[in-house]
Amino acid sequence: MPGGVDLHSHTTASDGALAPRELVRLAARHRVRVLAVTDHDSTDGLPDAIDEAARHGLEIVPGLEINTDVPGAEIHVLGYYVDWPAEWFQAFLREQRAERVARVHRIVARLGELGLPLTAEEVFAICKEGSPGRPHVAQAMVKRGYATSVREAFDRWLRADGPANVPRRRLTPAEAVAVIRRAGGVPVLAHPGLADRDAMIPELVAAGLAGIETYYPEHSVAQIQAYRQTCERLHLVATGGSDYHGPHTGRAATLGSPHVPLEVWEALKRKVRELREQARETEQPGHEPRESDSPPFLPGHPHP
Ligand code: AMP
Ligand code: ZN
Ligand code: FE
Ligand code: FE
User: What does the pLDDT average to over 147-176?
Assistant: First the structure.
């Protein structure tokens, strides 16, 4: 089957360097047929991505990524086929982004204490309307000459246990999983090979986790093998993607790489149907039913 699948990418709606339309055009050039746009705490890139994709015969999987902190590490949760236009879900994302803004202020204050004065405005000038995060802080630090690259800013100050990182005051990983399920989506543990917290997988599954990002640029062959087996054992979908953030972002990812079989997308679509079927069976009286028979990527059904 020609064409690739890439279920993890970022745009200017969060910390990606490419606008949604640019990302989709690049994906088409890389012969990607199915692309998930998974910005941090934002679905604002989706309308443009979907519109542009229609011109290139490309399929967009609507998604997002929710980053959470646990002691000593970060757990990122991807959500696919969420009912993203739902008003309650957009209100949730606005709260998430408000905390990101507040966190930038806390990081900037911390940098000041470390003798690296920086204003939050310099950071927001870089992310513009997008969901702010440490990559934007890192870029502002490079502009100031505090580091020669985004990578160096992370390595010296902003990494999870770095001196200028401050934790988020938001969700636990289980809560991130639960909110994606509540929005009718498929929650997937992102790049677990980077987090060293595989011990949390059972409790995340108990919270509703439905997949593990298995194919990932920084996963070894042995890790891919191990996560595939875990997925089989726990009846989870093994997904994959590049986590592409655009050129010159201090990251080596290539859109459409690693190769993800088309079968993974088919399995993801089966999973969303399965979860919605389950949700319908356990529907509580008083809750509005979901329109489980409509294609999961079509917006516009009622919500709680
Ligand atoms: P935040 O949204 O503030 O949690 O920042 C997380 C983002 O920072 C990730 O999605 C990556 O894009 C980026 N990131 C994390 N670690 C590094 C690193 N060592 N070098 C460059 N970018 C990184
Ligand atoms: Zn990112
Ligand atoms: Fe991530
Ligand atoms: Fe990501």
Answer: 95
- Ligand 1 site, residue 8, Cβ cutoff 6 A: no
Neighbours of ion ligand 2 (CB under 5 A): 15
Which contiguous run of DSSP H or E holds residue 237?
Answer: strand 237-240
The whole-angstrom separation of Cα 184 and Cα 272 is 8
Structure confidence at residue 300 (pLDDT)? 35
What is the mean predicted confidence (pLDDT) over 170-193? Answer: 97
Q: Is the CB of 106 under 6 A from ligand 1?
A: no
d(CA 89, CA 79): 12
- DSSP one-letter string for 150-193: HHHHIIIIISTTSTT----SS--HHHHHHHHHHTT-EEEE--GG
Q: 224-272: per-residue pLDDT in tens?
A: 999 999 999 999 999 999 999 999 776 778 999 999 999 999 999 999 9
Let me know: does 192 contact 227? Beta carbons within 8 Å: yes
CA 67 to ligand 1: nearest atom:
4
Q: What angle do CA 208, 211, 217 make, to 5 degrees?
A: 145
Side by side, the strands of the sheet bearing 59-70 are: 4-6, 32-37, 59-70, 73-80, 186-189, 211-215, 237-240
pLDDT reading at 211 higher than 50: yes
Q: Could you report the per-residue pLDDT of 19-49, keeping only the tens digit for each?
A: 999 999 999 999 999 999 999 999 999 999 9
Q: Find the 10 Cα to ligand 4 centroid distance in Å.
A: 7
* C-alpha 229 to ligand 3 mean position (Å): 22
Amino acid at 296: P
CA dist 74 to 110, 161, 204, Å? Answer: 19, 10, 14
Average pLDDT, the chain: 92
CB of 67 sitting under 6 A from ligand 1:
yes
